[in-house]
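ping. complex inputs:
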Amino acid sequence: MNALQLYGRYAAASIRGQMQYPGAFLLLSAAQFGNTAISFVGVWALFARFGRIGGWSLGEVALFYGIINIAFAVADTVSRGFDVFGPQFVRTGDFDRLLLRPRATALQLVGHEFVLTRIGRAAQAVLVLAIAANLLKIGWGPRELALAAAAIVGGAALFLGLLVLQATLAFWTVESLEVANTLTYGGVTAAEYPLDIYVRWFRRFLIFVVPIGCVSYYPILAILRRPDPLGAPAWLLEAGPLVGFLFLGFSLWVWRFGVRHYASTGS
Amino acid sequence: MPQIWVDDLSKTYRVAEREAGALGAVKGLFRRRHRTVEALKHVSFSLEEGELLGFIGPNGAGKSTTIKILSGILSPSSGACEVGGLTPWKDRIAHVARIGVVFGQRTQLWWDLPVIESFELLRDIYRVPEASFRRTLDQMVALLRIEPLLDTPVRQLSLGQRMRCEIAAAMLHSPAILFLDEPTIGLDATSKLAVRDFVKALNRDQGVTVILTTHDMHDIEALAKRVIVIGNGAVLRDASLEAMRAEAAGERRLVVDFAGDVPPLTLEGVAVIGHEGRTQTLAFDPRRIAPHRLISAITADHEVEDLRLEEPPIEEVVARFYALHGADEA
Amino acid sequence: MGPALALSPGRRLAPYLAVLRARFVLMLQYRAAAAAGFATQAWFGLISIMVLAGFYRGAAHQPLSLHQAIGYVWLGQALLVLLPWSADPDVSEMVVSGAVAYERLRPLDTYFYWYARALAWTLARVLPRAVPMFVLAAAILPLAGLGEWGLAPPASLAAGLFFAVSVGLTVLLSAAMTLLINVMVVRSLTARGANTLMTPLVNLFSGLIAPLPLFPAFMHGFLFVQPFAGLSDIPFRLYLGQLAGAGAWAGIAVQAFWVLALGAFGRGQLGRAMDRLRVQGG
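pong. complex structure:
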């Protein structure tokens, strides 16, 4: 049973488990939807008052908003194991059980839960994308769709990588890992607007350090056929999502290092 | 060639220390102090295939640390160890595929799923071929009598039921070695017996090597042929259960129920270690005073309703061990 | 309650105070949390400010000046922890483990006991977050010549005083709302739903997503009187001098009203929830 098949089994089992509480599932999904919808209400309110931000219209911002939220919803669905890693695995010692199974620990954590309720955030983001598509006068051909898909998948890989890194921190300190929330939720919030409205050092951070800009800002610029006001070359705009995968690869490498540390210090 | 050997294993931890009270908490914001804990000190032993070993020792003695190293989830500070030719912490995935581990306090089953679904997930995780999975499953279900539990979600099981499923789960991939960490803790009497019988049968009939850690001495008496006593991170004794009993053979107990009120007996070489109403418990060395002579002496002078000759419970033997080697619980 | 009536007020308060102290000490131990929380909030504050600056560029006159809007954002981040984001984690744990039924065994009024815990939990977390944020926004930024990106002092002495009183009411209001969330958790026997439900409401209606004065004018009346306004919008506008004179007293009145209303409502609901637990077996 290879890794992908095993993941399928994990996901199916997790979904079955969650479906035992249909009430809670609906409530949580609805709450997720409401939560993310409300933050868009904030965006809408500001546009209602001001009309434009920098050189961008509501439709364009809606595109940025929708894409990054779908990417995060996808990552969020599969990353629960890493998200709760500190309190539910390290602090309880339950990580030992993962080590006692003849499988990669990262795979087991991805399989820990398939969080269906993220569908709430995803649905709301799709709605916002629909709004964007409606407001924007661009043709949605295979190129645009491919870029959008790449942005979503690359973004999801990046966010998963961030959560893996956050979980790795738990090996060293069982204390608060909120700093990683800055990068995940903060990253989503930051990428909801085009990067050029931010100050330079902030932009650089989001392109070179935590490359959220590469996986969303660039491919969306390519979709909108706008050159980067900050001067990035055209090929980079379209290849941006690959950076997400590189980041994920890096974070898994760091994870292995963390597991080794755990094995030498115990719990 | 022993299946499991441990050579000069040592493990030291650094533990952060925190001062008590509000002031200490504030100080802790700025600086942390550490102290070193030697969890294992030069532990060595070896096990042949099919042995059943009991690991006992006070809390904090190093039992869990040894089990963790043997199972591969902890690496030692120094020393060597091989299980079935593999170094546990270095060849983790290959090694854990061949062992089964049961933690008494924690479950490896999925909380919300029916037991059988947990089993099937484990089959997929351990890559057990369907045919051999079915065979092993049927065997375990029969031996542990868990047929009626298979469709129940784990969260609805009682502790005893869960532990039986837990043990079945650990055996699904037919491991050659089984580690049991406090398997009978918190179980009712029937469940304890069921678990013990199962482990005994497993070891006897299928030759599964078993390492058992426990505080329950009845587990040890029922199962272990060999006992290792660990205290303060070191091996205090590594001997067969019989040998340990023999060492305690220097004491026997005679419990006498007198017909009337008799003051504590004063006989040479006999200590009165208990006196309740008309019953007195006497301790003596059977090598110096033959039991039948003692009984004759007592019944000659007093009217006796009942008497029992006993060996000291193994708990006392072991507790005396701990005390002797300064290994009492911290 | 008989024997309790015979105790002096000090003795009656003692268990609640003990709870406050114990949790305060616990909170101090999470040093990494304090630093990380600060970084997170500074980040979100920064984003909000840059977004607002982007919108304000070349824009006409607004109910809040850019500098005031920026101050609003900083105040929001500094006092973020005061907001009732989720149920008291102790209560959540109790409900999940089933121990919540034992709360009725304590010789204390459950509502006030939990209220004290909520207060303690909130207050203990506020200082480590608020102080560094104030230092950054009100001291460091101005000193670095970036005063227009920082937090200006209160608009006037009166504004400062109103602000202080209002923040006190915010704390009480937040605790009352936390108790309501606690009730939701007790009723639904799980923490997830209640927590997720509160976050968007609090986010939007307290002015964190966008300062309430910047919402369309037709919403202003409603936004002012709704209970969440008292969590941050009202104290912030008092600070900025945007609510002054009669408006200031109106703001305080709105806050006080909701403290009492939600407190009374919460107390009733908690009683009923606990009674139901007793009937169901907890």
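Chain C has a mean pLDDT of 84.
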